Amino acid sequence: MSSPEPIKFTDGAAYERFMAPWSRSAGTLFLDWLATGPGLAWVDVGSGNGAFTELLLAKSAPSSVCAIDPSDAQIATARQKLSAKQVELSIGDAMALPYDANRFDVAVMALVLFFVPDPRKGVSEMIRVTKPGGMIASYTWDVMRGGTPPQPVWEELDAMGKPSARPPSADISRFAALKALWAELGIRDVETRELVVERTFADFDDYWLSMVVSSPSGVVGNLSDGEKAELKRRLQDRLPASAKGEITVHAWATAIKGRKVA
Question: Which of 72, 140, 247, 248 has CB atoms 3.0–4.6 Å from 200's, for a disulfide?
Answer without folding.
Answer: 248
